[in-house]
Amino acid sequence: MFATYLIGLREGLEATLVVSILVAFLVKSQRRDRLPQVWAGVGLAVALSVLFGWLIEYTSTSLLSRSEDRELFEAITSVAAVVFVTWMIFWMRRAARTIAGELRGKLTEALAVGSLAVAGMAFLAVIREGLETALIFYSAAQGAAGDSGPLLALIGGIVTAVVLGVLLYLSALRINLGKFFTWTGALLILVAAGILKYGVHDFQEAGVLPGLNNLAFDITGVLDPTTWYAALLAGMFNVTPAPTVLEMIAWVAYAVPVLLLFLRPARRKPAPAATTTTVTERGADTGAEAEAASTPQRA
User: What b/e string do you get for 97-121 counting C-beta neighbours within 10 Å, with b at 16 or more?
Assistant: First the structure.
């Protein structure tokens, strides 16, 4: 459940910071009359994200009758989720320094067009995070059918993110967002490696990949699947006591290079001094810019 909580927290905070940028800009610009359109766009994005998550689950449980088809569908969604996680982590690191300015520029253009453009701007700013969350959650929660724990953990992560975002906006909380996104990014890479490992297993179950019975090792005697710590490792990072050779190859081939690339030392460039900041209305700055200020720029 920790994995789904982390997904909700990370994606939820990114979406909350984006909304904070839009709200802060409108407040500072004395355009509070456009706030209802922003919330309408955000609400529509959330509703469509929930619908997308339901469609994925419905497709897997109701539309696909053969077990092989379900395994193949789950494998494909797992690979897609890994792609989205990887792209999201590196995109946030690269775009953090400019995202606030770009959003404010787009919102200025939308204000000149009209209320529908403002709602559309807010919708597009949030829908990406919502669709990513739905897809990643489905992939991370596979194998927990009938268990409401992962869903509750995801909701808990999103609620935590919203609370943190509001406190940051109200200047009631100070967080080094650079460190936050770095640590959660590293953990999500491990979660994504586990999702990829699960996807490879599903491909093997579907008969697309060979080697379903070719185990890399079997440490069931040491890591008893019935123990709480084995369940915790399996739920967080899909660490299992008897993986196949292809599963382990996929896990190592993804986790090691991606982690090294993500955590490699930065080549510093001249920049303003690092800060630990709050989300306030000063220049409509938000946590996205705070992350940029507190995160060393990597090559």
Answer: bebbeebbeebeebbeeeeebbbbb
